[in-house]
């Protein structure tokens, strides 16, 4: 258990709780750094990637690995990593509902391990994940997952409540019936991963153009032919829409429109102040019956979740281009559902000194599935969006599969 602190956050007064948080969301992990000069894009390329987050960066990186680096252009309307990447929680979970998704997440983890082994910054840490069951029904789900894992060659283990406590001493186990341990899961630093992959792509010849806005995607006979930007036009053979919650709007920049059904919703998570003695290899803990997760992050606890009823963001349809304008206000009344569950699962969190509550938009499709693949409306127009909050887990493998598709 981590030590108790003098400043206490009580459930009875969510409106006053914000006084314990630093309202300045800026930090070293959120600051922009890039050596990309503001230059006009080239006139010709094979592939134009729109969106300078970790997904677009991964596509550019893997195209470079296939020898297409000098024929690839990555366009970002603002700064690299300035969309949803900078506020991602960095969870990298291997287990997903389908074998295809599992192959993608495994490839992502393998990529981040490889980059880390070369001394490059990714923040990768294989700390494992502990998934908690409060009900027998949830344990039945975990048993099914373990059976699937054996077929899919994922190492996992069913745990008793006492074994769960051994994996994570912070948790209360009074109301749990067991758990599922996945040792291959881990975490990473989303911004470091993005910048490392971008710089590696540039080293392989990819052109990265920041502060450049796509105006139109042109097609002839149903196939991509060029992209119009505010800095000049680019003749190309492929266009990849990796623009996160802008993907729907970018889809409307072509004729016919490419339909990308997604919408941004608010996603809250909190940071504590540094906690002396907190184990840096604390596993990611997911309590799906309580809608919550938490992890260790640079000596702090990062804790959030997915409330039963999401709160839409940007309901007027306008998504600000500036990262500062996109910062959403704290909403303790909405977050209280998750906070109550966090305090229940980690009782000593009541006495932790809290730093800030982050509220960042994340893009969800109507059925919460990823939107990936070639658009049916236009040939050679590919989409990678709607990753919810698992863009980091999906990016490395998705970029690899898209690189193969383009080649």
TrEMBL record:
- Identify one Pfam family in the record: DAO
InterPro entries on file: FAD-dep_OxRdtase (IPR006076), FAD/NAD-bd_sf (IPR036188)
Gene Ontology, cellular component aspect: mitochondrial matrix
Any idea where the FAD dependent oxidoreductase domain is?
A: 46-400
Gene3D superfamilies the record matches: D-Amino Acid Oxidase, subunit A, domain 2 (3.30.9.10), FAD/NAD(P)-binding domain (3.50.50.60)
Instruction: Say which domain of life the source belongs to.
Output: Eukaryota
**Chain ranges passing through the membrane:** none
Q: Protein name, please?
A: FAD dependent oxidoreductase domain-containing protein
């Amino acid at each position: 258990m981590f030590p108790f602190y003098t400043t206490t956050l009580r459930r009875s007064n969510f409106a006053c709780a914000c006084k314990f948080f630093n309202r300045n969301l800026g930090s070293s992990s959120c600051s922009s750094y890039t050596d990309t000069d503001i230059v006009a894009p080239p006139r010709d390329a094979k592939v134009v990637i729109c969106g300078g987050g970790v997904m677009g960066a991964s596509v550019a990186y893997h195209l470079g690995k296939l020898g297409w680096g000098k024929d690839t252009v990555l366009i970002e309307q603002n700064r690299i990593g300035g969309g949803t990447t900078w506020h991602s929680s960095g969870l990298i979970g291997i287990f997903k509902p389908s074998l295809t998704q599992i192959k993608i997440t495994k490839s992502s983890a393998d990529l981040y391990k490889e980059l880390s082994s070369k001394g490059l910054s990714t923040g990768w840490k294989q700390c494992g994940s502990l998934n908690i069951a409060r009900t027998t029904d949830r344990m039945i789900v975990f048993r099914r997952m373990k059976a699937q894992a054996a077929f899919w060659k994922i190492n996992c283990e069913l745990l008793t409540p006492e074994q769960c406590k051994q994996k994570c001493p912070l948790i209360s186990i009074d109301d749990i019936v067991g758990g599922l341990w996945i040792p291959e899961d881990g975490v990473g630093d989303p911004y470091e991963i993005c910048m490392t992959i971008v710089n590696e792509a540039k080293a392989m010849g990819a052109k990265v153009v920041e502060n450049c806005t796509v105006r139109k995607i042109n097609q002839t006979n149903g196939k991509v032919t060029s992209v119009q930007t505010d800095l000049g036009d680019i003749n190309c053979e492929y266009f990849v829409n990796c623009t996160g919650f802008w993907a729907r709007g970018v889809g409307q920049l072509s004729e016919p429109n490419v339909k990308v059904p997604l919408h941004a919703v608010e996603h809250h998570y909190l940071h504590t102040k540094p906690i002396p003695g907190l184990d840096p290899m604390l596993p990611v803990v997911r309590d799906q019956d309580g809608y919550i997760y938490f992890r260790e992050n640079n000596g702090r606890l990062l804790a959030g979740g997915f409330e039963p009823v999401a709160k839409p963001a940007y309901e007027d349809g306008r998504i600000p281009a500036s990262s500062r304008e996109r910062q959403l206000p704290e909403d303790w009344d909405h977050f209280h559902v998750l906070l109550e569950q966090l305090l229940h699962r980690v009782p000593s969190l009541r006495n932790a000194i809290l730093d800030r509550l982050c509220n960042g938009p994340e893009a969800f499709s109507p059925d919460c599935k990823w939107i990936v693949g070639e658009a049916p409306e236009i040939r050679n127009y590919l989409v990678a969006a709607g990753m919810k909050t698992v863009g980091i887990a999906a990016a490395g493998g998705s970029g690899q599969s898209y690189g193969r598709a383009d080649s």
